[in-house]
Amino acid sequence: MAAIDNNIIQSLGAGSGIDTSGIVKQLVEIERAAPQQRIDDRKELTETQISDFGLLKSSLATLQSAVSTLSEKEGLYSKTASFTDSDALVPKELGTDVLPGTYNFVVNEVAQSQTLSSPTFSSILDPVGEGELTIRFGSWNDGATAFTEDLDSTAQTITIDSSNNTLKGLRDAINAGDFGVQASIVNDGSTFRLLLTAESGEQNQLEITVAESSGTPTNDDADGLSRFAFNDDDIPADGADTEHTQQMTQYQAGRDASFTINGLPINRSSNTVDDVVDGLTVELLQASPGETVTVTVSDDKTFAEQNVRDFVEAYNNFLDEVDSVFKYNEETEKEGSLKNDSLAKSVLSRMRTIIGSAIPGLSEGNYTALTNVGIRTNLDGSLTIKEEEFRNAFNDNFEDVQKLFGSHTSSTVSDINVNSFGSQTVPGSYDVVITTKPQKGYYAAQPLDAGVTFPFDTTGKTYTLELTVNGEVSGVITIPTDTTYNTEEEFAAAMQSVINSDSNLKAKGVSVTVNYDTDHFEILSSKYGANSVVSVSGASADSIVDLGMTIANGTNGVDVAGLVNGVAGFGLGNVLLPKLGQDAEGLTMLVGENATSGTVSFSRGFSGELDTLIDDFLKSSGLLSQREQVLEARLETFDEDQEALDRRISAYEERLIRQFIAMENILSGLNSSGSFLENLIDTLPFTAGND
């Protein structure tokens, strides 16, 4: 018995060999294992979901690029052209708005620029005199003996003083003005000349008048600034006039291009012609009378077809890329992290809905869904093209294909047009009723004086005006006089030109139209609405008496008003906007002065619908970004859970250590008591050993 008691004490005591530290470590690991695994699993899943959402966003962005190609006008409305091989003309650009057709050109003359050359100088630093050169634009007759100013152009004044009184300084001053005249200095081998080149065209030719500074040489002196004059005025005998004759030499006159298109005669100032056929730019190379250059424009169906094929391929690639985030992975033996995520699954389901459904707003045409053009959805969600149906759709109904894939607006009347739409606009058709037509503000002069009849000689007259147009105040406007105006319309054109050339009004983007109505002139603002008005705040006596331009306020314009689907909209100028909160919100309609009612329709097309959906998912405030933020925040909670678990396990470990220390103390006490009892037993008579 004594041996058994000793063994127990030794096994439990400090010298028993019990690994107290190991026992505590194992107990702590057991306590930590389950909650730690839960934290690790949830953290791993969250990190995987963040990564997979990143993959989903990246794949969506790649798909959106293919969709955007169809959303852009060039993707579906590009044109191709074939043309006669010729040295006379070549097409340069084809816009998406050019109408398919055949255009026959005959180039009779190409445009050219007027060039003027100065007298000779021995050095580019030779003085040229001081004063002002005034350059006007217009046309010269044959022989350059009579000049007619272009009233739609603005005269330019070049000041030459002591800071730039050299041939080089004059060149630089003209070029710094940047008004369409190129100045250069040419060396003919021994001397230097100033060469001026105007822009091409008959109306861009130059008249140059000179005003010498006081004390500088006059035209009678070969060293003055008058050497650069080129005008049709005679110098009076006393030489006091500031106008000078033609000291410059004309080497080439300005000329318009002259050509025909489908038999229609046309003149243009430039050889680059971009305003005859909308969307078509041609370059005239040389005259070739009698030669017909045929340009045939057609829809680039092959390009559009390839863009649609590229989308189908991009969509199928997208499905392949994101497949792993949804399906079971046999290698890792794990389900995709987003398999049960409702947002991630909605990305696919909502795209499949657009792909498989009729496109909203398409109520006309043969095609309203992808299946109509031979694009089918397979069981796995991927797309397949039925080649025969697909090609027939592009060959036979290309306009309907364009409407299916691209955005489309239409109106039943020409005076109500949809200018733009918003992301919130619901596709569909909307009835528009105009209750108040838009009008421009205007000023109506009094009837012309009885003595003013046309042709009208304005010699000795002074016609000045000061206007306020749409709240913007003009400077003093001077209508050219000392000339004869053949018709009222010619005078109105001259008045319109100088008003629109006013620097104050031009700086504010304000312009007017001047008309003659029966017996009086009218100045009409180019702007619609209640804030549109033209008033005369100042006028010379001749303007008041002859032209009826009395100082008075004009008549304000009128803002458009109307109903959209029976609900009053908001009108500003000639722009009508539907009421906020209505399905048509976001539509911007331009309304003409004769509009009464009509129906407008709007569809984003397949590409617009899908692009809008993807953008909703991808934008910085979109659903996917919001979900990523939630997951990022969740990761922070796992750190907090980890800290809490670490604190709990640390406390648990400390409690175990204290308990084992207490046990050791008890065992130590028992060990001491055991030794005492053992010694006591050995001394008792009846337990003592036999000697």
Work out the count of structural domains. 5
- The average pLDDT value, as a whole number, equals 87
Number of strands: 36
Rg over CA atoms, rounded to whole Å, is 45 Å
Structure keywords:
elongated, single chain, 691 residues, 34% helix, alpha+beta, 5 domains, five-stranded antiparallel sheet
Provide a descriptive summary of the structure in words.
The chain has 691 residues and is of the alpha+beta class. The protein has five domains: 1-76 and 300-407 and 610-691, no CATH class; 79-111 and 257-299, no CATH class; 113-252, no CATH class; 410-435 and 560-603, no CATH class; 440-547, Immunoglobulin-like (Sandwich). Helices cover 34% and strands 26% of the residues. Strands 1-16-3-12-13 form a five-stranded antiparallel sheet, with no helix packed on it. A five-stranded antiparallel sheet has the order 19-36-21-31-32, with no helix packed on it. It is elongated and about 160 Å long.
Quick rundown:
With 691 residues, the protein is α+β, with helices and mostly antiparallel strands. The chain has 13 helices and 36 strands. The strands form ten sheets. It has a five-stranded antiparallel beta sheet with strand order 1-16-3-12-13, with no helix packed on it. A five-stranded antiparallel beta sheet has the order 19-36-21-31-32, with no helix packed on it.
Topology:
Blueprint: H1 2-12, H2 20-71, H3 73-77, E1 79-83, E2 89-94, E3 101-109, E4 113-117, E5 131-140, E6 147-149, E7 156-160, H4 167-177, E8 182-187, E9 192-200, E10 205-212, E11 249-252, E12 257-261, E13 264-268, E14 272-273, E15 280-284, E16 293-299, H5 301-322, H6 342-356, E17 375-377, E18 383-385, H7 387-396, H8 398-405, E19 408-411, E20 416-420, E21 428-436, E22 440-444, E23 456-457, E24 463-469, E25 472-473, E26 477-479, E27 484-485, H9 488-500, H10 503-507, E28 512-517, E29 520-528, E30 534-539, H11 541-547, E31 561-564, E32 567-568, E33 570-572, E34 575-577, E35 588-591, E36 597-603, H12 605-618, H13 623-683
Antiparallel strand pairs: 1-16, 2-15, 3-12, 3-16, 4-9, 4-11, 5-6, 5-7, 5-10, 8-9, 12-13, 14-15, 17-18, 19-36, 20-35, 21-31, 21-36, 22-29, 23-27, 24-25, 24-26, 24-30, 28-29, 31-32, 33-34, 34-35
Helix pairs in contact: 1-13, 2-5, 2-12, 2-13, 6-12, 7-8
